[in-house]
Specification:
By secondary structure, this protein is an alpha/beta fold. It is built from 18 helices and nine strands.
């Protein structure tokens, strides 16, 4: 099964390289991506701004993430590339598996660019998955289109012997190629965003074997065999740190770390099984690339905001259950308690469900968050990934609303 998938992917990559070559004339049997690429000039891509690109070294989003005052709030959406867009659904007819779409570089690039072209987001995030580096660590996985990720469960000391430190250039060269291409494709004002999964969240898949609602297997391990879980987490942290650095060295200008399922932990268990391994990844990034901002996101993290800030991350991405003004104060308090300077940055945090509302509602809710966040250190986003059924016109209106907002009007 694994060999057949590898053979399929190699074949698809070879075909993709040919199909996307500039010297290749269009054929009568063009794929969805071919048609999109051939029509790219006709697509309303964001225009290059000579004023901004010559005045500022860093893109707007990067400056905001670094705590600098910006001329307007930057905006992008988690999961902005994907199922809510018709162009993506059309592409899926030709590239039927998620791994094809994320591991064939030209396809991943095209999907990454789709929302950037359509909405003029300030960030263009790589289309990939948090599980992508796992095979490079000795852990194979599949993504079932209906079930989601599937991994052979690892619940014994013997089962983790196959884990090893990743060599990202060998395990995921397609990630490097895609990031480098994105840097060439987007305007200088647009930030290219990379991301990784945090050790605890990745460990939930390794221990549970698939997605879960209660995470009972990993909690059982935490309480009955904590040394085994710590060994898994340490292995993951070392490799994820390497993978994050690899993305930066390939062109990513910001790294968002997702510990999505750490919100199921109590504060005490977060301090034990999640935060230390987040910090291992963040410290590795800051040691080699202190200029690259970092963001952490945890779903249902209302009880953990101060702890997230205390890891030393530059920006805490709030979900929609936290009031923005209160969240900013809590982030500042968490940093102060940890002995960190500055109030810290914030990202978010519009409820994705608001995008099913009227334009009037979207504007009112978005502007309320923008006012509470203030003009410094805020990256506007949703409080979770955009829902697949979201109307594209509402997503576009949300981005337009934020791009047109100016804090000067509040003064």
């Amino acid at each position: 099964m694994k060999l057949s998938y590898a053979a399929l992917l190699l074949s698809a990559c070879a075909a993709g390289a040919s199909a996307f070559s500039p010297a290749t004339p269009p054929s009568s049997a063009t794929t969805a991506v071919d048609r999109l690429v051939l029509n790219a000039e006709a697509t309303a891509a964001p225009a290059k701004s000579s004023d901004e690109s010559t005045t500022h070294k860093d893109p707007l989003l990067i400056r905001a993430a670094l705590g600098q005052k910006t001329e307007r709030p930057p905006v992008w959406m988690m999961r902005q590339a994907g199922r809510h867009m018709k162009v993506y659904r059309d592409l899926c007819k030709d590239y039927k598996t998620f791994r094809e779409r994320s591991e064939i570089p030209d396809v991943a690039v095209e999907i990454s660019l789709q929302p950037w072209r359509a909405y003029q987001t300030d960030g263009c995030i790589l289309f990939s998955d948090i599980l992508t580096p796992l095979p490079g660590m000795g852990v194979e996985f599949d993504i079932d289109e209906k079930v989601g990720p599937v991994v052979e469960p690892m619940r014994t000391w013997d089962s983790i012997k196959k884990m090893h430190l990743i060599d990202p250039s060998e395990a995921a060269p397609f990630v490097s190629q895609a990031l480098r291409t994105l840097r060439d494709e987007v305007t200088p004002e647009t930030a290219v965003l990379g991301f990784v999964g945090c050790p605890y969240t990745l460990a939930t898949y390794l221990v549970e074997g698939k997605t879960s609602k209660e995470y009972l297997e990993i909690k059982k391990m935490a309480f009955c065999e904590p040394k085994l879980l710590h060994a898994i987490l340490k292995n993951l942290a070392e490799s994820i740190a390497e993978y994050a650095l690899f993305q930066i060295e390939s062109g990513a200008q910001l790294i968002q770390i997702f510990d999505s399922w750490a919100g199921h932990l109590s504060p005490r268990d977060y301090d034990t099984f999640a935060a230390p391994y987040q910090k291992m990844v963040l410290d590795a990034i800051k040691a080699k690339h202190p200029e690259v901002p970092t963001v952490v996101y945890i779903k249902h993290s209302g009880a953990l905001v101060e702890r997230m800030a205390g890891t030393g991350v530059d920006v805490v991405s709030l979900d929609w259950t936290v009031d923005m003004a209160e969240g900013r104060d809590r982030i500042a308090a968490g940093r102060a308690k940890a002995g960190l300077e500055g109030r810290g940055g914030v990202q978010g945090n519009l409820d994705p469900g608001v995008l099913f509302g009227s334009h009037e509602t979207i504007k009112e809710r978005a502007e309320e968050i923008l006012k509470k966040a203030g003009p410094v250190g805020h990256v506007m986003n949703l409080g979770h990934g955009i829902e697949a059924a979201t109307p594209e016109e509402n997503a576009a209106f949300f981005i337009e609303t934020v791009r047109n907002y100016r804090h000067d009007a509040d003064e």
